[in-house]
Sequence to fold (497 residues):
Amino acid sequence: MLRPLIAAGLLCLAFAAPAQAELIQLDQMQAVRGARLAREAGGTPLAPEIGIWRIPGSAVAGLRRAGVVKVSRPERVLTEDSQARATDPFVSLEWWRPVIGADAVEPPGPGKPVTVVDSGLDITHPEFAGRPNTELLNPQTTTDGNEDHGTEVSSVIAAPNNGVGIVGVYPDAVLREWDASPFGALLEGSAIQGIREAAIRGPGVINLSFGGDENDPLLEDAILFAVRSGSLVVAAAGNGGSEGSPLEYPAAYPHVLSVGASNQSGQVAGFSTTGPTVDLVAPGVRIYVAEPLSFPNSSGYDFAPGTSFSAPMVAGAAAWVWTMRPDLDNTQLFELMRRSAKDIGRPGWDIAAGYGLLDIPAALKFRTPLSDPQEPNEHPNEIEPKRLFTDGMAPLTSPGHLTSSLRARVDRNEDPVDLYRIWAPQNLTVKVRAAGPVALRVLPRSLTGTKSRALAVGKKGLVTYRNAGKAGYVYLEVRPGSARVAEYTLTLTASRQ
Fold:
């Protein structure tokens, strides 16, 4: 069950999805036939590249009997990661700007886009009326009492420096908006569709300021699609710090830059969710934001705390850095944003602040991290062709190409496994050497998982496997050794020795 990610006092979203709507993921082996049947059943494609559709609930049983459904689930209402409205007086309206260095360096003009997947944007607001480089990816609505969140989040990212109201992290950002609340509340399927829409437009930053404690495989697959497509996904860590900090999704998924909240004292806010997946923090207390003008008695602005507003600071800053450093790929940007953070807790990474507090000037100058190729690649479903991704991932070695080398990175929480296909010729020995603190195993090739007994286990950075059977592909698995994060270099050879 979806658990609200809000402190006591904020009314949960109460609107339901369309009557009896369900989300399904088609079996990719039946992709063409499944898509035809889903369409005939009145379905709507949400992320067709990975087979996700919205289907009338009455049609799901028939599609299952036809053998085309891999996953089905009732569509859920998602919850925003904002807290109750603060009523105390404020000394400074945008105290956070100097804290993260937003006023220490001149921001660039438009560059890498930021897509906000949230409730709609009030395009009539003085911050957004006529704002250049604002792209509405679908119709936007802000008439419902729960539809203020998207405008708030967007103002933190990109309120322009126009002499009116407030200024966002990256005032001239290319701001893209996807309204995932077509019925007054954030819907799972609509959020999936928005992530997909952002991803297919090319690499950019995607901000997700919502979540819950239910692991959602369809939402995760949409995020994996965005990562594979080259985008950086940023999510609010959640506001469960006073509730035991349960894992919050999507922030807890691998490859998602998870952002907690800090306060005006430079410490982690008490409500901010802590845990092994937190990457960094940004201010999330007493954040002055734009409010939809359609709200009763709205002045156009209000104060709002929560990790919902920490995440867009990081998202806007990441787009700023990416614009200034366009040669980075999304895996390098991910690592750079967290590693350049200012340490505010115990030395090094910790479960409350991650690597520390967002620092834009430091990020702009930080050394270029190692690129991490072939991500995501934790599971056979992600690397085999015609599974989650149509093309899968190219093997490291193949018939006629028996040597290879690769540099990559693993992280115990954000990238816990690197899985590769390698060619094992008949009666030849495959040797894999790893420079770096990682553990190696050779596993049988399986389309369902990696639970099988290992064919070979590495020792001291070397794993060898002699194939006495038929030639074919096996898996090479790389995991962190004793270190939380490990960079490594692989060298693969196949020979008679």
In short: Residues 21-74 form one domain.
